[in-house]
């Protein structure tokens, strides 16, 4: 193989923290693009300490939203074990549809955020009924030493 | 260290000499430590090397000299506004040639202001662009097979990559 073919681009040689900062400086839907640019950038994407799930991308296909959450956690959580999460954001700007078990999913995500010592947890949820979060998750949430921002 | 010194000489990684004023050098933590540790008086032969190439170091020093007065004294809002405009002009540079070198240098020299500015510039370049446009801008080679690519896209069904 020619040398020019094996050389990686300058951006791929930057420290991971620096690329994570660039990812964090663009909207999440643009940051996702890092995952398909190249193999090097894909592996750096996997350790990006921000998770965002935006239902507005999926409004016509609620099941895709759930499967996307599971896919993301399946691919990215193994790379994140024992590393604090900077931010978890969930956007669901609609009233619940009873047919989908969203509250279970949100509670599950909340627990993931707490276990990963998330600094920011943002639940952007419009709902007539309050999110039914079990008491023990709330307790650990409020006793978290790592949390700096919480937007219910 | 002699307190009367107003400017110091440093070497780039290419071996070229550059002068930087003491107040500008203070924007960088490692340079500041060097100022405290190393003798910079005229009778001292030692010229410290900064592991940044000449082309990049010129830009870094230009940034430091521009920002030093404000960093050292604090500035009015109109100054801050002017500095913002200057930053935008300063960051109009070729990505492959220099932007990422500036990022590396700002990281290495612990210059928070320049680091944030360069990161934001890189981020602004890719905002709203398609995957192939981003590859072109940052000179990234696609090393995925089309099957792999398709599989990755399926992991983010809600996102448009085009």
From TrEMBL, chain A:
SMART domains: FBOX. It comes from the Eukaryota. It holds the Pfam family F-box. SUPFAM superfamilies: F-box domain. Residues 14-55 form the F-box domain. This is F-box domain-containing protein. The lineage of its organism: Eukaryota, Viridiplantae, Streptophyta, Embryophyta, Tracheophyta.
UniProtKB/TrEMBL annotation, chain B:
Pathway: Protein modification; protein ubiquitination. Residues 8-67 form the SKP1 component POZ domain. Part of a SCF (SKP1-cullin-F-box) protein ligase complex. Keywords: Ubl conjugation pathway. This is SKP1-like protein. The keyword Phosphoprotein does not apply. Belongs to the SKP1 family. Gene3D superfamilies: Potassium Channel Kv1.1, Chain A. It comes from the Eukaryota. SUPFAM superfamilies: POZ domain (SSF54695), Skp1 dimerisation domain-like (SSF81382). Transmembrane segments: none annotated. Pfam families: Skp1 (PF01466), Skp1_POZ (PF03931). The keyword Glycoprotein does not apply. GO terms for biological process: jasmonic acid mediated signaling pathway; protein ubiquitination; ubiquitin-dependent protein catabolic process. Involved in ubiquitination and subsequent proteasomal degradation of target proteins. Together with CUL1, RBX1 and a F-box protein, it forms a SCF E3 ubiquitin ligase complex. The functional specificity of this complex depends on the type of F-box protein. In the SCF complex, it serves as an adapter that links the F-box protein to CUL1. Residues 113-157 form the SKP1 component dimerisation domain.
């Amino acid at each position: 193989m020619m040398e020019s073919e094996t050389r990686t681009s300058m951006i791929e040689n930057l420290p991971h923290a620096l690329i994570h900062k660039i990812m964090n400086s663009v909207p999440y839907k643009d940051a996702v693009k890092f995952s398909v640019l190249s193999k090097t950038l894909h592996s750096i994407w996997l350790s990006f300490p921000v998770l965002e799930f935006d239902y507005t991308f999926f409004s016509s296909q609620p099941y895709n939203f759930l499967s996307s959450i599971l896919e993301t956690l399946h691919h990215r959580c193994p790379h994140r074990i024992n590393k604090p999460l900077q931010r978890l954001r969930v956007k669901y700007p609609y009233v619940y549809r009873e047919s989908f078990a969203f509250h279970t999913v949100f509670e599950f995500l909340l627990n993931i955020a707490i276990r990963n010592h998330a600094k920011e947890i943002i639940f952007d949820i419009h709902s007539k009924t309050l999110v039914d979060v079990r008491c023990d998750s709330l307790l650990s949430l409020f006793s978290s030493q790592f949390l700096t921002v919480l937007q219910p | 260290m002699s307190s009367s010194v107003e400017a110091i000489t440093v070497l780039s990684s290419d071996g070229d000499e550059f002068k930087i004023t003491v107040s500008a050098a203070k924007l960088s933590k490692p340079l500041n430590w060097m100022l405290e540790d190393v003798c910079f008086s005229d009778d001292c032969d030692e010229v410290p090397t900064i592991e940044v190439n000449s082309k990049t170091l010129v830009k870094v020093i230009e940034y430091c000299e521009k920002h030093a007065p404000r960093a050292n004294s604090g500035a009015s809002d109109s100054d801050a506004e002017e500095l913002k405009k200057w930053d935008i002009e300063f960051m109009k540079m070729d990505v492959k040639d220099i932007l990422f070198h500036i990022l590396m240098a700002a990281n290495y020299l612990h210059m928070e202001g320049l680091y944030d500015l360069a990161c934001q510039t890189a981020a602004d370049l890719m905002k709203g662009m398609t995957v192939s446009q981003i590859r072109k801008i940052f000179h990234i080679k696609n090393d995925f097979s089309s099957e792999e690519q398709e599989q990755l896209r399926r992991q983010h069904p809600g996102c448009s990559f085009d």
